[in-house]
Design goal:
- The chain has four helices and seven strands, in the order βββββααααββ.
- The N terminus is likely disordered.
- The two termini are 23 Å apart.
- The radius of gyration is 19 Å and the shape is flat.
- It folds into two domains: 106 residues, Class II Histocompatibility Antigen, M Beta Chain, Chain B, domain 1 (Roll); 35 residues, no CATH class.
- The strands form two sheets. Strands 1-2-3-4-5 form a five-stranded antiparallel sheet. A two-stranded antiparallel sheet has the order 6-7.
- The protein is an alpha+beta fold and 143 residues long.
- 7% of the residues are buried.
- It is found in: Membrane.
- InterPro entries: Ig-like_fold, MHC/Immunoglobulin, MHC_I/II-like_Ag-recog, MHC_II_a/b_N, MHC_II_b_N.
- This is MHC class II antigen B.
- It is a single-pass type I membrane protein.
- Keywords: Adaptive immunity, Disulfide bond, Glycoprotein, Immunity, Membrane, MHC II, Transmembrane, Transmembrane helix.
Length: 143
């Protein structure tokens, strides 16, 4: 999964107005495997401020709008053959490739330890973020 977040505390836009907060954009590609590579499904999720607005589902074969914001984007991407073809082939070029390239990640069965802790921002007196720590999920031979 890929998470892209742009956070610039105290940054001023070109117009000189102070920002009111920050925005988060995430693109999360996901491969689902059933019985190895016998049955694979590719999902490509686009998320703005923790809300998925459009996604591609290889079982459907096109981009699907999840919100009104996603409708014009899905329509645009579905109307462009090269964009749609690239997403459709991701089952083989992305999922099948990664399954073969990283067998140690596919075969791991060790349950991770998860700890979520409040985290204080350096510029604000109150706790305004959570930190998630995940450990112990590697195969035993790596530990």
């Amino acid at each position: 999964a890929v998470l892209v977040a742009l956070v610039v505390p105290g940054a001023h836009p070109a117009g000189g107005e102070e920002t009111k907060g920050f925005f988060q954009f995430s693109m999360v590609p996901e491969c689902q495997y059933l019985n190895g590579t016998e049955r694979m499904r590719f999902l490509d999720r686009y998320i703005h401020n923790r809300q998925q607005f459009v996604h591609f589902d290889s079982d459907v074969g096109q981009y699907v709008a999840d919100t009104e914001l996603g409708k014009p984007i899905a329509d645009s991407w579905n109307s462009r053959p090269e964009v749609l073809e690239n997403a459709k082939t991701a089952v083989d070029t992305y999922c099948r490739h990664n399954y073969g390239a990283a067998p140690f990640t596919i075969g791991r069965r060790v349950e991770p330890k998860v700890r979520v802790s409040p985290m204080q921002s350096s510029s604000l007196p109150q706790t305004d973020r959570l930190a998630c720590y995940v450990t112990g999920f590697y195969p035993a031979e790596i530990e």
